[in-house]
UniProtKB/TrEMBL annotation:
Residues 6-45 form the HTH lacI-type domain. This is LacI family transcriptional regulator. Coiled coil: none annotated. The keyword Transcription regulation applies.
Length: 336
């Protein structure tokens, strides 16, 4: 379809971007320009040109889902929910594994818009200036999952990450921990920021100070967990507990600590976020803050369906409350 639009643009003597707008949102194209495009399509022998320009038969039943790491348990479960919500209605989910690369996100979004996709669901979004501008001008539904951009009015489905962070602080405090460190997610992520804010304000509410010196940013991988464990082991005054942003980082951290002869929870207590299959598969038995990612994916699919043909109106803001699953990775110092 991109090649077709470029051919039409050359014949009509207009830009490719103008033809793309004509296919996705003809109201933004001047009538005289629209006529040039119609004439060009007739000259090229393209049947049903008016239907295509009106969006009939051009908007496909394809939905782009952008995710940073499909191997991540949480993201894969969200995708599962999206597919369960859209497959029965004949939609095809097209997955883009972007690896936290803003350029790949941007390119995938542009391809989806140019090729008549029905919408985009973003489990990952990097708020660069170009991406924000593209989201603002989008003529197809956009749904963010576990992400939000405060400057934009978009449909969102997310966890109450602030509450999750606060719950973690309360739980560790009640079990007697006073020197606590945190390994959080990607710097600049709204999810990581909300968890950090909830955690730090929770500790402050109990009279504990929490500074940037007690916090390290990771990238949600096992490797960042291993590096954090090395950082922990190098501290002169070791902490008694750690709040970790996801199970993958926690898994890497636990393995490195065990290799160094440290025990969980005897030497380090660990509380993390996610409650993934790793908890059972690797015998980590981690106490976690959890939420249902499949349900979040289903909610995103439902919002997308309600947005078909109706980009205006009240925005959806669905927030899931987290819960705490207690296992054996946190030592209760208060009872000793």
């Amino acid at each position: 379809m991109i090649i077709l639009q470029k051919t039409i643009a050359e014949r009509a003597g207009v830009s490719y971007a103008t033809v793309s707008r004509a296919f996705t949102n003809s109201a933004k194209v001047k009538p005289q320009t629209m006529q040039k495009i119609r004439n060009a399509m007739q000259e090229l022998g393209i049947a049903d040109g008016d239907d295509m320009l009106l969006g009939k038969g051009f908007v496909s039943k394809a939905v782009l889902v952008i995710v940073s790491d499909i191997s991540n348990y949480f993201y894969s479960k969200v995708v599962k929910g999206i597919c369960e919500g859209l497959d029965p209605l004949g939609y095809t989910v097209v997955l883009c594994h972007c690896g936290l690369d803003a350029n790949r996100e941007l390119a995938a979004m542009r391809r989806a818009m140019e090729n008549g996709y029905s919408g985009i669901i973003m489990i990952t979004v990097t708020a660069t200036e170009e991406i924000v501008q593209l989201l603002q001008s989008s003529s197809i539904p956009i749904v963010l999952v576990n992400r939000y951009i405060s400057a934009l009015d978009l449909d969102t489905v997310r966890i109450d990450n602030y509450r999750g962070g606060y719950m973690a602080a309360q739980y560790l405090w009640e079990r007697g921990h006073r020197h606590i460190a945190m390994l959080t997610g990607v710097k600049g992520s709204g999810t990581a920021s909300d968890r950090c804010r909830g955690f730090s304000e929770g500790l402050q509410n109990y009279g504990l100070s929490f500074s940037s010196l007690d916090m390290v940013y990771g990238d949600n991988t096992r490797e960042s967990g291993r590096k954090f464990a090395d950082w922990l082991l190098a501290q002169e005054k070791p902490c008694t507990a750690v709040f970790v942003g996801n199970d993958y980082m926690a898994a890497g951290m636990v393995r490195r600590l065990r290799d160094a002869g440290r025990r969980v929870p005897e030497d380090y207590s660990i509380l993390c976020f996610d409650d993934s299959d790793l908890v059972d598969e690797e015998g980590l038995d981690l106490t976690t803050i959890s939420c249902d990612p499949v349900a979040m994916g289903l909610s995103a699919a439902d919002i997308f369906l309600q947005r078909q043909g109706n980009l205006l109106g009240r925005r959806f803001r669905i927030v899931y409350s987290p819960s705490l699953k207690e296992r054996s990775s946190v030592r209760n110092i208060a009872e000793e």
